Amino acid sequence: MALSAGDTCPEFRLPDDKGKIVSRDNLKGTPFVLYFYPKDDTSGCTVEAVDFSRLKGEFDSLGVPVFGVSPDTVKKHGKFKDKHDLTVRLLSDEEKLLLDACGVWVEKSMYGRRYMGVERTTALVGPDGTIIRLWQKVKVPGHAEEVLEAARQFASAT
Questions:
Q1: Run of H or E residues at 80
Q2: How far apart are CA 83 and CA 120, in angstroms?
Q3: Catalytic residue at 9?
Q4: Fewest C-beta atoms under 10 Å: which of 38, 40, 64, 130?
Q5: How many of the other CB atoms lie within 10 Å of CB of 22?
Q6: Which of 45, 55, 66, 144 is catalytic?
Q7: How far is Cα 80 from Cα 49, in angstroms, rounded to an integer?
Q8: Helix 43-54 to helix 143-157 angle, to the nearest 10 degrees?
């Protein structure tokens, strides 16, 4: 089941690129961004991660941490971050628990072949765990800026 704005962000406990656990409970009282992406070190995913990293200071100044989530391993996330000097934290969901709970682990099709994968999606989550804004089937160019603008609007309204 896909999430919608107004839904509660599912519970999660996932390791980041250094193996440190991040959970929804840790983030209680803090707005945050979860961006779901298919795979480390692919072209679109790299551009998205670089864009969010470039804007990390602005998100930080709003008190809104950004987390990328994919089914890649902690080790692969670490290599991806080092290779591209990424500053956002990447969460590993190898068991696809959060991906499934958020409805972003879906059947996809390319060149007539069907397979399971991540539908690029971003959620801006409020301090109470409610999804404030949801972007589905994200197109990467300009997306990180759009999310930052939504975070600014949220911060100025609270």
A1: helix 74-84
A2: 22
A3: no
A4: 130
A5: 19
A6: 45
A7: 10
A8: 40
Closest of 35, 70, 62, 36 to residue 127, by C-alpha: 62
Name the 3-class secondary structure at 157.
Answer: helix
At residue 69, what is the residue type? V
Q: Closest Cα to residue 33, out of 118, 140, 149?
A: 149
Residue with tokens 């193996």: 19
Token couple for 147: 């999310």
pLDDT at 158: 73
DSSP secondary structure, 19-79, as one string: S-EEETTTTTTS-EEEEE-S-TTSHHHHHHHHHHHHTHHHHHHTT--EEEEESS-HHHHHH
Beta strands 32-36; 121-125: pairing state: antiparallel
pLDDT digits (tens, 9 = 90+) for 95-117: 999 999 999 999 998 898 998 99
Determine the 3-state secondary structure of 139 from DSSP: coil
Angle, helices 74-84 vs 43-54, to 10°: value is 70
- Would the pTM of this model clear 0.85, i.e. be above it? yes
CA dist 128 and 145 (Å) reads 24
